């Protein structure tokens, strides 16, 4: 097992829905002995409702504004593992902020894995209408060129969750800006 590096800034996990940000994030936080925070959960707390309800009652734009406010606050919070929603890093201002204040780690997964993993949990407004496979394919085409800006990329398709955690820790050990 790799030695555990000491982090002083947030590690922001980025990637599409179903990439494993929450599960990998929780395990990574435990290994690094830092708090785990899921930005979607913080948005839910702040709004007092589910992500689906926020989209339905106020629209995606309001959700994105809330997401930006919550991430602005969390990114000042020092050492933590922060799972961000799949659209967060796509917003130019949020991305700038993450690249400045955090170590960004892209959990990269192929279409088949994402389709399979997102089918296990609902609550995702973007996948509620139409064919989830087609939607995810479009999101891959639109977002992967932007996710590429992340500091670290981990290809997760062939990895277990713990395997992904090990690779992230290895990648962090090579850096002096964490
Ligand atoms: C979204 C991803 C979701 C959530 C919202 C929008 C997106 O988070 O923030 O449904 O735009 O990809 P997860 O990536 O944690 O599922």
From TrEMBL:
Substrate binds at residues 40, 64, 86, 143. Belongs to the shikimate kinase family. Mg(2+) binds at residue 22. Its cofactor is Mg(2+). Its EC number is 2.7.1.71. CDD domains: SK. GO terms for molecular function: ATP binding; magnesium ion binding; shikimate kinase activity. GO terms for cellular component: cytosol. The keyword ATP-binding applies. Monomer. Its main location: cytoplasm. PANTHER family: SHIKIMATE KINASE, SHIKIMATE KINASE 1, CHLOROPLASTIC. It catalyses: shikimate + ATP = 3-phosphoshikimate + ADP + H(+). One of its GO terms (biological process) is aromatic amino acid family biosynthetic process. Catalyzes the specific phosphorylation of the 3-hydroxyl group of shikimic acid using ATP as a cosubstrate. The gene is aroK. Binds 1 Mg(2+) ion per subunit. Coiled coil: none annotated. ATP binds at residues 18-23, 124. The keyword Ion transport does not apply. InterPro entries: P-loop_NTPase, Shikimate/glucono_kinase, Shikimate_kinase/TSH1, Shikimate_kinase_CS. This is Shikimate kinase. SUPFAM superfamilies: P-loop containing nucleoside triphosphate hydrolases. Pathway: Metabolic intermediate biosynthesis; chorismate biosynthesis; chorismate from D-erythrose 4-phosphate and phosphoenolpyruvate: step 5/7. It is found in: Cytoplasm.
